């Protein structure tokens, strides 16, 4: 079992920055691939960025060059640095942890943190 707690959301003006954090507990953080997803009102949840156990990253095209995902295994925390924010980045952002044992997937979600980009 993994418990995930996001923080760092809030209201920011277009062009501004925010840093989201996701603190994990309950299991060995370093064995999980981690990710950030978001869900805007009336839309499906979508992938924002992922980072593997080895540190490889992947980004949605809409955030490439603006967002950076990172992890600190010593602190059991994954981060999402968001720069040059746009109104369309407004959403609830969720932290995700996943690992596979054979073909069995074990995944966990945080409760989400609201990000609102508005002037």
What tags apply to this protein structure?
single chain; 119 residues; mainly beta; seven-stranded mixed sheet; 11 strands
Write the H/E string, N to C.
EEEEEEEEEEE
Calculate the mean pLDDT score and round it.
95
**How big is the Rg?**
14 Å
Q: How far apart are the termini?
A: 40 Å
Strand content: over 45%
The outline comes out as globular
Kindly state the number of beta strands: 11
Helix content: under 10%
How many helices? The count is 0
The helix-and-strand class reads: mainly beta
What does the largest sheet look like?
7 strands, mixed
| Low-confidence segments | none
Q: Would you give an account of this structure?
A:
The chain contains no helices and 11 strands. With 119 residues, it is an all-beta fold. It has strands at 3-7, 10-12, 18-25, 33-39, 46-51, 57-59, 67-72, 77-82, 91-101, 104-109, 113-117. A hairpin with a 5-residue loop joins strand 5 and strand 6. The strands form 2 sheets. Strands 2, 4, 5, 6, 9, 10 and 11 form a 7-stranded mixed β-sheet that branches. The model has no long low-confidence stretch (mean pLDDT 95).
How is the secondary structure organized here?
Layout: E1 3-7, E2 10-12, E3 18-25, E4 33-39, E5 46-51, E6 57-59, E7 67-72, E8 77-82, E9 91-101, E10 104-109, E11 113-117
Parallel strand pairs: 2-11
Antiparallel strand pairs: 1-3, 3-8, 4-5, 4-9, 5-6, 7-8, 9-10, 9-11
